[in-house]
From TrEMBL:
Matches recorded under PANTHER family: THIOESTERASE 1/PROTEASE 1/LYSOPHOSPHOLIPASE L1
Key words, A-Z: Signal
The keyword Signal is annotated on this UniProt entry: yes
Protein name, entry field: SGNH hydrolase-type esterase domain-containing protein
SGNH hydrolase-type esterase domain: residues covered: 61-214
Transmembrane segments: none
Endpoints of the signal sequence: 1-19
Amino acid sequence: MRTKITLTILMGSIVLALAACGNQSADQSAVQPESQAQGREGAASGSTVKVYQQTFENSVFLGDSITEGLSFHDVLDEKNVLAGAGKTAEFALEDIEELVKRNPKQVFIQLGSDDILWPTDDPLTYAMNNYAKLIGMIRDKLPEVQITLLTVTPVTEEAIKKEPRYNTIPDFNQALKNLAGNEQVGFVDLAPIFKDAADMYDSDGIHFKPEFYARMLDLLKEHVK
């Protein structure tokens, strides 16, 4: 009986942790037509999108629903994005086989928004341990691939009021920087994108309109090998 109760509590915690990102994914679907229209008019023209797709044709972006926006908003092809709502560094370990099939020259890892919410005593340490495992597995299966870690994207003040755990984003990003140094992989701080850019956020204050993805790729194109 005690085992059944423990499992029930654990499954309930997991559901609560994933609910935030899952709900945001639903919100994205609701605003898709408007956001995509804004992307075509304000973020990037069709010719610019084509340039992005050519620049990152040998790259794969591995991540959560934030990363998924690259293909959701048609900024990159789906073959270049391996992401989904609720993904954590631990869950991303399950994507290694698919990543190997795609055989990229470069992998950009953008996780953490869900790791922060994971129901464990020390989410940061737990996430970094799984990040290290993820890097190790990628290197083992794709020894020639270039790996670059991206910082966790900030959220609005309103989003922090609703979920105070987002206050730990700076701590996560410092830990990611340290991990990148220890593992000798690339690291890119996305902070420059967010200067005077409050209008890039969707209504939830967590996810983004197409403008963000255009700015992100403009920043990252210098890091493509």
